[in-house]
Amino acid sequence: MSKTKPTDQLNKRAVIYCRVSTKEQVDEGNSLVTQERHCKEYAFKEGYEVAHIFIEQGESAKTTDRPQLQHLLDFCSNRKNKVTTVLTYKLDRISRNTDDYSQIRILLKRYGVEIKSITEYFENTPAGRFMENIIANVAQFDNDVRTERSVGGMRDAMREGRYVWSAPIGYDNVKIGGKSTIHPNEMASLVKQAFKMVAKNICSVEEVRRNMLDAGLMTKRGKKLTKSYFYKVLKNKVYMGQIVKFGEQHPGTYEALIPEHQFQQVQWVLKNRAKRSYLYLTEHPDFPLRRFVSHAETGKKLTGGWAKGRNKKFPYYYYSGKGKSFKRDFLNDKFAAYVNKFSLKGDKLEEFKEKLRENLTKEQSDALFRRKELEKNITMLNEKIASLIDKNFQGYINNEVLGRQLDLTQKQLHDAEAMLADIPNQLCDVDDMVDFTDEYLKNPGNCWLNANPSQKILLQWFKFPKGITFDGENFRTTEIINIFKVKRSFLNKKSPKVHSKTETLNHTSITGELPITVYYQIAKEINFLQSIFEDNKVV
């Protein structure tokens, strides 16, 4: 007479789910082999038929978007598979997020499937379900603590000047002195070249991208850089030695590929690219004013070409459709003379230099003071946060008070860190800037004439961002840089006079003492002008 299995032993059909994250693979106690072996032994002992084994490798339990988990849910939803139970080594294999675990459990319950942890026993009673929820919450708490420690570690590394994230193009992730950071690799020279070409502004950013692709610049995976990816590279402050994460900015201790002034120059080019501020230099290097000058009435752009003479060709500028043309050298000299109207000499130049030096020195001194005060405040706020947590741990303040105080203190800390990030880490050389200004402002027109073609283009668009108009006699413009406004504002305040519309067309002037913020803007402009002449000195 054959023995009959009890009712609760009939139709016990299970699937096994095993998972490890990358870090857990080194832990023998949680290895896939160990989990699978224990689950199979449990299934055999308890009389389960194993219908399928789902193995999840290197996937985090922070999300339900895991391939094998999704396959498991699909498998269980099919009534033909007759699954009654999901066996797992521990509940945190299913999920470390309480909400996700609850949703998975409810979904499986609809299919008539329960979750069993082979190392954590829960009875199907109110007390058992209560303990199951506690274990799920403990898993999430453990995950939250790990995340907090990981973020805290990354934040500490950033404040030490170490970049611990995936290295951008031109860098490799390395360990120096046992600590993670980044170091330039063989792509670094191509990244430098890309920034340099964009900074020169002699062709479009897209042309630079194509040239760099031809030179071998590619992503970490060996793929071509898309337009959007290339722009991300050009805007990444990591290349100038700054780490920006968690709403903070800190100087890196790794080797920067790009000097700060060149990085800022590239940002200016990107910001103004819609104005087509680059000239078609490859087409007409002999006609720098081409497309930069417009007709005062028709708005047509000035163009240029060579007219045939008896024995040689002669360069001319002209407006298409207009009969009059202008000798190239004549118009170039006339433009240089117009630029020289913004020059400063003698006592006026000395007065401006004195004020520039005085205000920049004061600004730098104030910046150093603000930096020290902010650093002191940030240290104090971090200590306050630690003290609040300690007081809560010892029972002096409850969780509600702790939460309010932490929110307020962390907001103050974030604001202080944001203000600190706005203060330049490397202060400019005031004497060098003043000396450059002295030489440049004496004769800015001649500086333009003596510049090479690419420098001419950068200079004219930088000084007159919206271009200029020419009616055959006079040049006019609607916008000039701050350093050119100085002559009419501060330095002419003692002897005001009425200027012609030709000279004053929408030139924003500032009367009285110039605010220190204007001097700071002028300093940025001088820095930019210095970078234009970096390769071939003209001044």
Compile the SSE list and pairings:
Layout: E1 13-20, H1 32-46, E2 49-57, H2 67-77, E3 85-88, H3 91-94, H4 98-110, E4 114-117, H5 126-159, E5 171-176, E6 179-184, H6 188-200, H7 205-215, H8 227-235, E7 242-245, E8 248-251, H9 260-271, E9 293-295, E10 302-308, E11 313-319, E12 325-327, H10 328-339, H11 346-394, H12 399-421, H13 430-442, H14 444-450, H15 453-463, E13 468-470, E14 475-476, H16 482-485, H17 501-504, H18 516-532
Parallel strand pairs: 1-2, 1-3, 3-4, 9-13
Antiparallel strand pairs: 5-6, 7-8, 10-11, 11-12, 13-14
Helix pairs in contact: 6-7, 6-9, 10-14, 11-12, 11-13, 11-18
Write up what this structure looks like:
The chain is an alpha/beta fold and 539 residues long. Among the domains are: 7-151, Rossmann fold; 175-275, Hect, E3 ligase catalytic domain fold (Alpha-Beta Complex); 341-346 and 429-532, no CATH class. The chain has 18 helices and 14 strands. Strands 2-1-3-4 form a 4-stranded parallel β-sheet, sandwiched between helices. Strand 1, helix 1 (32-46) and strand 2 (49-57) form a beta-alpha-beta unit. Helix 6 (188-200) packs across helix 9, helix 11 packs antiparallel against helix 13 (430-442) and helix 11 (346-394) packs across helix 18 (516-532). The longest helix has 49 residues, at 346-394. It is elongated, with a radius of gyration of 35 Å. Mean pLDDT is 79; it is low at 1-8, 274-283 and 495-511.
